[in-house]
# Entry
Amino acid sequence: MLAEQLFSQYRYENCAVVALNDGGVIVGEQIASWLHCVLTMLISEAIPIPGEGIDFGAVSQTGQFSYNSSFSPGEVYEYSSEFHGYLEDQKRETYQRINRLLMDGGTISTDMLQGRVIIVVADAIS
# Structure
């Protein structure tokens, strides 16, 4: 149903579908099929704060780190100070794990996305 709704708005656009998770690939495949466009996946992995049950942020397939947006700057500073060594180790290990998963050339090409309408999808469960 979503693919059909997007078709009426984007059928004449130069689009690309970017899936954020495994379930997003399933949803994105339907959209990409309807729009006859490219489908790719952005891989990221969360880094939890030890003993807190919450994620401090996530590392993307390019190695870029993004902080959890629910934290205030003060909380980011506090956690960064308290867990500095642990968090830096986790960032490095996570990036290496993603690279092993993707192998060479597995990252999203910015050239492929340049000048396109980007449709970002995920499943509703994550």
Notes: Strands lie at 15-19, 38-41, 44-48, 55-60, 65-67, 117-121. The mean pLDDT is 86.
